[in-house]
Amino acid sequence: MPEAIEAFQREFNALKAEIEKVIIGQEEVVEGLLTAVIAGGHVLLEGVPGLGKTLLAKTFARATGLAFSRIQFTPDLMPADITGTHILNTEGSRRFEFQPGPIFGNVILADEINRATPKTQSAMLEAMQEGAVTVAGEHRLLPKPFIVLATQNPIELEGTYPLPEAQLDRFLFKLVIVYPSSATLARIISQTTREPDPQVTAVTSGERIKALGEMARALPMPSAVLDYTVRLVEATRHSPPAQKYLRLGASPRGGQALALGARVRALYQGRSFLDFSDVKAVAKPALRHRLILSFEAEADGISADQAIAEVLAQVPERP
User: Fold this and answer.
1) Are strands 246-248 and 292-293 parallel, antiparallel or unpaired?
2) Could you give the percent of the chain with pLDDT greater than 70?
3) Tell me, what's the pLDDT at 115?
4) CATH number of the domain at 219-314, please?
């Protein structure tokens, strides 16, 4: 087991280092992305324009050697533009043939996903949950692994359609990309305007990511940590901070996200056991998009992250 954990760490750190050749100063975001992907989930990336959301997705695909597909969401995008459609083949015998859409890839960048209409957004639901699409009544499986990295701009609301809760719940993690520090900004400007873009090479594969995920799922969860996870999820519905600031707390899927993320974190930290700190570390990315704030929270300027911090402070590790 120690050798397997060391191998997990090596592969995780090698992939992280390869991505950070291009993505500067976003260590926490890169770790969160890799944690969610190894756990088998999709990721929602939120941040203002110019912070590298699209670049992060493209770099991840190159570092894993997976087939990358980008879908630019716009108000006039139709579901068939994503899933594909049947076209008439006029060569030889005239027949309809299926033309796969851009959803048929391994790493799917759903760029500015909240710009598409709800009808088009719904085309992503089956793909994200089932790993398949239905076109003209025919069920078609998507390539494995299938990873959706969706981006959205938090400040530009004109001409956008907020994602429904059902679709938000399909994302294992929501990662928030913030402005870099002064020192990091200096590094970005210096490195990207003077030297050629770093060459990113594939340091792992889809099969290895799947194997790492299976190893994480096999990691036992101590009963005390499981109990803490359950109490944390329930506290988003019943604790004093939740009753004041939240209209809707986390669902069981939120608890699953906590457990999966904590398992992956324990392994890349070099441990064969889960700790309370693992659950706490993934609480915000796992829960921030699953909570609906109350009017009191909006009036008091309380964000989902602040509400989660309040809940974490209220729930003891042991009852």
Assistant:
1) antiparallel
2) 98
3) 87
4) 1.10.8.80
